[in-house]
Amino acid sequence: MSSLLEALNKGILTSSTEETIAIGEQLAKALAPDTSLALYGDLGVGKTTFVKGIAKGLNIEKPITSPTFNLFSIYKGEKQLVHLDAYRLSPEQSVESLMIDDFLKSPYLCVIEWPDNVPELIDANTLKLQLSIQTNSTEHFIQAIQNSTA
């Protein structure tokens, strides 16, 4: 994990969906228990594609889709994946109403898109990743924005 985390701290450039999925897959296999992921980035930067890689790394066979209208989806695999899309939430809303506290610890891996809208879910065990698209390019850039326990 240390080499992958070092690479994420520097930033990883991917030039295809398959490469983005592969990074997510590697990360899923290396994460410590009780680690959550916060995926920051604008619309269309590859957050859900990255989650597809996480799911692949957990041997989840069900197709991964953006849970924007459901808020979160749960997938069964080697570890249970909770994919939370907080896009439609506002930071002022109480996350207690989501009733997902139990999903933030093992045996669950919680991946949060739009984590700025649920800041109280982000703690010391959250690995924060910034995803972006390179200017004038189709390449994606994935970078850890804070060292966390992983």
Topology:
Blueprint: H1 2-10, E1 12-14, H2 17-30, E2 36-40, H3 47-57, E3 72-75, E4 80-85, E5 108-113, E6 126-133, E7 140-146
Query: What are the low-pLDDT stretches, counting only 5+ consecutive residues below 50?
Result: none
How is the biggest beta sheet arranged? 7 strands, mixed
At the fold tier of CATH, the topology name is Rossmann fold
Q: Considering DSSP H and I runs of 4 or more, what fraction of the residues is helical?
A: 10-25%
What does this structure look like?
- By secondary structure, the chain is α/β, with parallel strands linked by helices.
- The chain has a single domain (about 1-145), classed as 3-Layer(aba) Sandwich (Rossmann fold), CATH 3.40.50.
- The chain is built from 3 helices and 7 strands, in the order αβαβαβββββ.
- It has helices at about 1-10, 15-30, 45-55, and strands at about 10-15, 35-40, 70-75, 80-85, 110-115, 125-135, 140-145.
- Strands 1-7-6-2-5-4-3 form a 7-stranded mixed β-sheet.
- The longest helix is centred in the N-terminal third of the chain and has 14 residues, at about 15-30.
- It is globular.
